[in-house]
Amino acid sequence: MKLAVILLILATTYAYTIVPTLDIDLDGPAKQRFQPAVQLILNTYGYDASFGAFFSYHNETTFKHLTSKDYALLATSVRTHWPQYAQELEGIVEAFNRSDVTFEYMSAWAYFHEIGHSLSVNIKECTAILLQTKDGIIHGRNMDQSPDAGRLLVVHFKFIKNGQYIGEAVDQYWFKTGFVTMFKYGVVSLQENWRYGHYLPLFMLLKKISAGTTSLGWTFRHILDSDINNFDDAVTYLENVIVACSQFNIVAGTGFNQGAIISRDPISTYPTLFFNNTGLGNDQFQYMVQTNYDHWHKDPKGDQRRTIAENLLANLTSTMQNELGVYSVINTYPVHNEGTFYTAIMNVATGRFNYFGQEGITPFNDLE
Q1: Among 66, 71, 326, 349, which residue's Cβ finds the most Cβ atoms within 10 Å?
Q2: What is its EC number (predicted)?
Q3: Residue 140 near residue 128, CB atoms below 8 Å
Q4: CA distance to 14, 114, 333, 334, 335, per residue, from 365 (Å)
Q5: What average pLDDT does this structure show over 49-66?
């Protein structure tokens, strides 16, 4: 309880903005599920300062490379293979009520990560920390992205099914109807990180999508919506689902050693990293860190987030081997950096899902 109070104080004191919370009833009409979120952001910030700035940035870096034929193929593929998500996207388009936000455009956003990999867009996002303690596995998550307008899009969702709350998510990508940070009560916490690995040329990617390959954001939706109800089944699904881009999936469960870093690739396969084969820590105190680079290689000199976080975790005192300790590590520069949109601290064993809107931070030399 004390830790929860401390984290709440940190959230309300240092947050860039209060992250709004909305319920989504998964048994309700699909078209209506995300419309309140669109309307909330538009009413609060207006289009130009929020979605408009975010869309404009990624149009220039990513979507300008798509042709009208590509957009049509993506829209047809979503409607054909993913009818529930297609209805949700149609509702989002209706809520925008703008001629430049079409179903074709939102279908491309549904595959934003896959398209970005295919075009070798330089996106550096995300740090994951898994810390095994006597009170369960603490899962710390930073989301790093651009541009700053994306911070205004971050929303916290609570999902209802059969009249009961079944999980939560916090994300700025929710308008693509998929999530990269999710929490299914009593089952798993989930996080996706961009991975620098093999990529598919755009024509091969579009062919794969046309054949029904899922968006990475929808893999977590599947775990939430389906009867996957334990750590092992979630890991097996994420290890085997066909993917169209490189990615890391970080998973924590409710039991001892139930932590995993799953390295996925559209071409090659790699072994999953579990607590019992990390070599970091000991039987009572174990941790794993994942950023955007393969963990079997050293960090690049220009991005030492993983190395710095591992060193900090290795030196945590016994009184800091808890949620506050994970927060202190993940909130240290450069783990928390100029592009950090939000932080989540999750523990499935205790049912706690804490989330904070973040400002970007940069080093300051007070001797100058």
Answers
A1: 326
A2: 3.5.1.23
A3: yes
A4: 21, 39, 13, 14, 18
A5: 96
Question: From residue 266, how far is each of 195, 207, 242 by CA, in Å?
Answer: 11, 13, 8
Over residues 253-265, the mean pLDDT reads: 96
- Are the C-beta atoms of residues 329 and 129 closer than 8 Å to each other? yes
Percent of the chain surpassing pLDDT 70: 92
Q: What are the DSSP calls for 292-321, one per residue?
A: SS-TTSPPPTT--HHHHHHHHHHT--GGGS
Name the CA radius of gyration of the chain, rounded.
Answer: 20
Cα diameter, the chain: 60
DSSP characters over 1-39: -HHHHHHHHHHHHH-SSPPPEEEEETTS-GGGSSHHHHH
Question: In one letter, which amino acid is 258?
Answer: Q
Cα separation, 258 vs 250, in Å, equals 11
Residues in the chain: 368
User: Global pTM?
Assistant: 0.93
Q: How far is CA 307 from CA 130, 137, 287, 315, 329, in A?
A: 14, 20, 12, 13, 12
Tell me, letter by letter, the H, E, C secondary structure of 190-227: EEEEECCCCCCCHHHHHHHHHCCCCCHHHHHHHHHHCC
Helices then strands, counting H and E runs in the chain, come out as: 12, 13
Q: What is the C-alpha to C-alpha distance for residues 185 and 194, in angstroms, rounded to an integer?
A: 25
Cβ–Cβ under 8 Å, residues 15 and 358? yes
